[in-house]
Amino acid sequence: MRLAVNLGHWGAGNDRDSLVLAQEAERLGYDSVWAAEAYGADAATVLAWVAAQTERIHVGSAAFQIPARTPAMTAMTAATLDGLSGGRFRLGLGISGPQVSEGWHGVRFDKPLGRTREYVEIVRLALARQALQYEGAHWTLPLPDGPGKALRLSLRPVREHIPVYLAAVGPKNLELAGEIADGWLAIFFAPEHAAESTNHVHAGRKKAGRTDGPFDVVATVPVVVEPDLEGAAAPLRHYTALYIGGMGSREQNFYNRLAVRMGYEEAAAKVQELYLHRRHRDAAEAVPFEFIDRTSLIGSPARIKDRLSAYAEAGVTTLALAPHAGSLEGRVAALRVLAEALDSSGLGD
Fold first, then answer.
1. Residue 59 three-state SS
2. What is d(CA 327, CA 68) in angstroms, rounded to the nearest whole number?
3. How far apart (Å, rounded) are the C-alpha atoms in residues 105 and 35?
4. How far apart are CA 65 and CA 332, in angstroms?
5. b/e for 163-191, b at 16 or more Cβ within 10 A?
6. Exposed/middle/buried for 159, CB within 10 Å: 0-12, 13-18, 19+?
7. Residue 252 domain boundaries
8. Contact, 174 vs 201, CB < 8 A?
C-alpha cells in the first residue's frame, strides 16, 4: 500500500499551504498528490503549479469533471500536464452530479454511464494520437454535417499510456470503473463495508477480462491525529454532513445512498433532512461517530497505525490522506505520522 495526499479544493482557505503539503509528501516518499474541483478553482491549474515545484511525486486529478470539458480538451490537458511534469500525471475523471452538471456547466445529467464510457474511449483515442473519428450515442466526431475533419493530437505525450481513474460511488459506476479504468477514486471508504463497493469493481474487471492486471484503488481518507476521539471527529462532522446531507438533491445524492448501503439508513435520512432545512450544525451533530471512525483515520498515532492494516486488507493500494488539523503544522505532522506508521507496519509498497 502506498501513501498519497489529497489537497482537496483550492480556495478552501488553505491554498498556499497546499504546496507545503505536496512538497513535504514528496520529501517523505509519498506516491502521489491529488487535487479536486467543483465550481471554484479548476484542478488542472493547481496540479501544474504543484508539478512545477516538485520533482518526483505524481500529480493526479480527483477528479476532472466530465461535463466541464470535451473529451478532446481533457486529452489535451492530460498530455500537457504529463509533459510538463515529466510523465507524472494521473487522469482522474468524474461525472459530477446533476446540480453542478446542469446548474454550473449547462450539461444535462442523463445517461451518465454511457457518457462516461464514450468519454474515456475518446480521450484514449486522442492520447494515442489517432485521427479522432468517433460515432457514439453522445459524441460524434467530426460532426457529420459541417467542415470538421478528423484531427490528430499535435502534441506527442511523454508516455504511451496515461493512467485513467474513475471517481465512482454507485454500484453501476463502480462496475464501469473496474471494466474500463486503471484505477478507482474512492470516498468514504470503510474497510468494514468495502466489499459492498469492491465486489462491483471486481465484477467489472471480470467482465472485461482484466482480473490479472494491475488496478489502483485510491481511497481518500480524512486524517486527524488526536488522542481524544470525539475531539478528533469534530472537524470531520461538517464535511461529512455536507456530502451525506447537501451534496445533491433529496432524490439524487450518491453519498447519501452510499451511507444507506453501509447500514446507516436512519442516520442518513436525518442528516439530509436537517441539512436541506439549513440546520447545518444539527446535521453535523447527527452524523454517527461510528461512520466517521470507520471512514477516517482518527486518534493517537498508535491507533492510526493499527487501522492501516484494515485498509490494506480491504484492497486499498493507495491511501490518499486528507489532513484536517487546523494548522499547517498539524497537517504536516499528520503526514509524518502516517509515513512512520506505514514504514513500521511493513505494509508499504
1. strand
2. 33
3. 20
4. 29
5. bbbbbbbbbebbbbbbbbbbbbbbbbbbb
6. middle
7. 227-299
8. yes
- 235 & 279 share domain: yes
- Give the residues of the chain that fall short of pLDDT 70: 12-14
Q: What is the 3-class SS of 111-180, one letter each residue? A: CHHHHHHHHHHHHHHHHCCCCCCEECCCCEECCCCCCCCCCCCCCCCCCCCCCEEEECCCHHHHHHHHHH
Q: What is the pLDDT of residue 14?
A: 67
Q: Please give the tally of structural domains in the chain.
A: 2
User: Is residue 324 classed exposed, middle or buried when 0-12, 13-18 and 19+ CB atoms within 10 A define those classes?
Assistant: buried
Give me the amino acid identity at 275: Y
* CB contact at 8 A, 150 and 133: yes
| Grid cell listed for 336 | 509524518
Q: Read off the pLDDT of residues 184-204 as tens digits, 9 standing for 90 and up.
A: 999 999 999 999 899 999 999
227 dihedral zone (left: phi>0; alpha: psi -120 to 50; beta):
alpha
Counting every residue, how long is the chain?
349
190 in the same domain as 44: yes
C-beta separation of 147 from 124 below 8 A: no
At residue 134, φ and ψ (nearest 5 deg) are: -155, 135
Give me the pLDDT at residue 13, please: 65
User: Which residues on adjacent β-strands are paired with residue 224?
Assistant: 298
